[in-house]
Amino acid sequence: MANPIIWLTDRSRTTLDWSCPRKRYWNYHAHGRGIVPPNTPLELFLGTALHDGLAAIATQWRAEGEADVDTISTTTARVVRETLDVINTGDTQNPNFPREQAALIEGLLRGFYHSAWPRLLAQYPQIISIEEEMTYPLSSGVVFMSRPDLVLANHDGEWVYVEYKSTSSKNEGWVNQWGTAVQVHSTIRAIEHTLGTAPSAVIVQGLYKGYVSYGKQNSPFCYAYYRQGTPPFSYPEWEYSYKAGFKKVPVWEMEGGLQNWIENMPEGVLGDQFPQTPPIFVKDGLIDAFFAQRLTREMEIQMALQMIDGADPDMQADILNTSFPQRFDQCQPGWGKPCSYRQACFGSGANLLDQGWVPREPHHTPEMEQLNAKSEAS
Length: 378
Hints:
single chain; alpha+beta; Lambda Exonuclease, Chain A; 3 domains; three-stranded mixed sheet; 14 helices; 15 strands
């Protein structure tokens, strides 16, 4: 009989623990499986929709040698728009927010297929894996879970791991940060353990969202620049970036919509929306240190949770303060959105599950299987 998996971890738990250990506790461990607010955070919803569309492109391409990007992009955009139409975003500054975000997602998918996807396949034409569940066992029963976006191979049999990252920046700092982003590189070990071959490098494929300016998403996938003509002396003009005398207009209101707009977008403009790192070669020593540190921390968390179970309220508070300290500068930072767990940390102390919060749904297969086994045994 195989040894049971007694403790599971992943990149999301790691980065959340680095950001705020108390948030890690609420999100992954409170009430036995973690609790989350009743509404999915907007960034998570949009990121999931984009990744699902990218996975659909790769899946169709592997099966048929091409992908129906028109159907994939318009279907994904419709789901985004209809969902945001229902959700009260509280965004009164931009009443077109649902259509704007739908256009952004559709544009990123169409643009990726026409620009970044051919570049990737030109170097690595074979698709090895698409969002496949993978694991890497540490020691003491601790298992690292991962679901790499894409694994490709070239004609020489060399593998590369491709990580998609939507971003609001594409400068040199964004490119350089991945050299020591060990939480990304650690996935290499899970790929090697699961598939038997280690990718030689990581490529981070960016999808540039632009930035918000005056309440609007500043992206050529959302807005064009238009100047009305006075025939026969001059004719209407369209530009992909700002020019004096031109008015910003929504792309979704243009004749031909996004499909026509992107098909005619100059490659220099289109390619600029998809920054890509050169192959990043992995430093094994860096990953060894990462896993050694994570093993120590995960075992500390496991022990703390065992002590919390059944302890009196004062003892529970002491354990939380010791093993899951709060990062108070993350509660409401000067840049970005407030932490969604402020109510959990600073609320009335009532059970949040009685106030609309819900148990976290796991996204990795081993964790789902483990929770199902616990449920059947209880």
